[in-house]
Amino acid sequence: MVTDIKKLNEMVQTEAAFLDDLFAEVGKIVVGQTEMVERLLIGLLTGGHVLVEGVPGLAKTLTVHTLCSVMDARFQRIQFTPDLLPADIIGTVIYNQAKGEFTSKKGPIFANLILADEINRAPAKVQSALLEAMQERQVTIGDTTYPLEEPFLVMATQNPIEQEGTYPLPEAQVDRFMLKIRVDYPKRDEELMIVDPERIMSARKVVNQVYVDEKIKGYILDVVFATRQPRDFGLENEADFIEYGASPRASLSLTRAARAHAFLRKRGFVTPEDVKAIGPDVLRHRIILTYEAEAEEVSTEMIIRHVFETVEVP
Fold first, then answer.
1. pLDDT of residue 96
2. Most C-beta atoms within 10 A of its C-beta, which of 1, 121, 146, 147?
3. Which pLDDT does position 186 carry in this prediction?
């Protein structure tokens, strides 16, 4: 089957028309955060979650809250603390004495955009409650299972692991986040316009149709496999620094994110530049380094840069 690129481009141009207004309105509140907002939109357009690390203060909350306000979507912030319980996130069953029956009380997870602030300050069972909801897109309270609202995006922030009172996220849980990004401080300005969240859901259907050529798919696989088998791709030095490479989920996430990146640029097809642009955000939390890498002060950013410099571009 031959893909009609011209027709697909026209469809993307039409469906992505609202993005200019959205960025303009977000820009009234969040100054200088274009890349941050773009990454969040990639998450929304693909159904992927985002992990943010390293920036203190209000920038993260303001950015997510502003985007949610522009969408007229439901926003919930969950502050993770050592005494937080799973029921504080997903909800619980309570007894109604007047009616003599048990009823479900839904937790803050039932929203469109969730800001999980300082996720690694809560113990593992609480982290697991959130991450299970992210993966399954549903929550069970008592004997009843409730689907989560769409669009649904979790933006989690975490403090540096070496800080006191933190519980590191296991690699298998971190891998459920589509992107890991770093942000800086935004500023506040003026009013917002309303964009219907159904627009995002409609756009998501078009994003899934953005054309990915077989050569681009091969390129994405080469990039991911280069993190697992670096010597096969001429990355001899990196071979001693990588304990575990990116998981199979990385290939799927990189493909979806590249599609959304192309969509944001109003193109109906993915180019190698899309893969390179979003690749570090998809891979940086999926590569586990060796102790030797830490001793040599080799970072995942350096590894990823060398991978993209070395893997042949179609």
1. 80
2. 121
3. 45
Cis previous bond, 151, omega within 30:
yes
**55: which 2 tokens?**
């920036």
Residue with tokens 């990039």: 223
Q: Half-sphere exposure of 140 toward its Cβ, with a 13 Å CA cutoff?
A: 4
Q: What letter would DSSP give residue 149?
A: P
Higher pLDDT, 194 or 258: 258
State the pairing for strand pair 144-147/138-141.
antiparallel
Residue 126 amino acid letter: V
The model's pTM is 0.71
Q: Is 145 helix (H, G, I), strand (E, B) or coil?
A: strand
Three-state DSSP state, 196:
coil
At 147 the three-state DSSP class reads strand
Residue whose pair of structure tokens reads 């399954």 in the numeric block: 136
pLDDT at 188 exceeding the cut of 80: no
| Per-residue CA distances from 154 to 114, 248, 257, 271, 293 (Å) | 5, 21, 16, 27, 31
